[in-house]
Known about the structure:
Blueprint: H1 4-13, E1 17-26, E2 29-34, E3 40-44, H2 51-67, H3 69-74, H4 78-82, E4 91-98, E5 106-115, E6 118-130, E7 134-144, E8 147-151, E9 162-164, H5 174-178, H6 185-195, E10 198-200, H7 204-207, H8 226-236, H9 238-251, E11 255-262, E12 268-274, E13 281-282, H10 288-300, E14 308-312, H11 323-333, E15 338-343, H12 346-349, E16 357-362, E17 368-372, H13 379-384, H14 389-394
Helix pairs in contact: 8-9, 9-10
Amino acid sequence: MLSNTLRSAKLGSGPARIENLRVENYRALKSIELKEITPFMVLLGPNGSGKSTIFDVFNFLSECFQFGLRHAWDRRGRAKELKTRGQEEPIIIEIKYRETPRARLMTYHLAVDERGGKAEVVEEWLAWTRGKGAGRPFHFLDYKSGQGGAVSGEEPDESGKRVDTPLRSADLIAVNTLGQFAEHPRVAALREFITDWYVSYLAIDDTRGQPEAGPQERLSKSGGNLANVIQYLKELHPERLKKIFHVLRERVPRLEEVRAEAMPDGRLLLQIKDGPFEEPVLSRYVSDGTLKLLAYLTLLYDPEPAQFIGIEEPENFLHPRLLPELAEECRRATERAQLLVTTHSPFFLNGMRPKEVRVLYRDEKGFTRAVRASNIAGIPEFIDAGATMGHLWLEGHFGLGDPLVNAGAPRTKGKST
């Protein structure tokens, strides 16, 4: 969770926003850059096109900050499985972001590799634009293999003193270390921003569990603490919970109430009551779609949402007609967070705008490429004429996305990312 000070500032001026993502040598992402990322972005493409890999880049960075580089590196199979085949250069992840929509553009650069069988941060820097953006960005944090330093202060610039602070180990993230100190507020803001990211891998079976009773503020990645979050909202944010139930009832016929009841043995039971019946039903007997929709609404209506939310393939288990409405719920959530969604669903896509959709494909060498749907020839004109994104995709107007017809690059106009 973000600190109270940072969260108060953001609530008054809008959430942090990622504007660009550049990745090199990460599995099939040999070299890719997504520019002008919108508050709501959808990744679309056939199986194996790289959607999940881009999604995992955000999860990898989040895990590096939460649990350390070694944890994130090892659980993905180390360099043998993480690095692009045949590449000797380090993995590079670079994001351009703003702490608030009107703040200065900042760039965070992280290069990691494996040396002597161990993961290492070979280069890391943090920079921001000067004044109104003129001139080269000023690097106020610079590290290589655990050696480097930073300029402190609210607005670090050339006049500030750069203090060298060696890290205890070359696998430590400098932003994670220095961001714990009050004299580095810009570094601290980035640390808290990335640590706060929520990248979902929702598992329906986990939502049916019976966790130990006790309120919890945020849904876990798998959704295993859904009952605990319902309990938290009931106790501290009843109006927010009432809104979630209202939206859920509009989507699920006859649903009347959701309960999280503490049992004598300390377990917490999630129960759902249908209108025609007197007794509620345990979550283990509730439909997959109802539980998944409840989990997504709990996430999107979080009183203090993560600044960045990733959702992978929300269409699974949900009725197709609910997906455009879920897309609109996601859009409403962008007032307080930035959302990234991967999908195969034309129904979810019908709720999207061309500039919000990136279509992924593999080039002739097998590497992932991306094109903005609004840059595909003919798409803006079709939309202006009343067509929807999902129907255009199904009819083959994107020039790719149908694994049985065409896996090549689309006809584009102008920039491709």
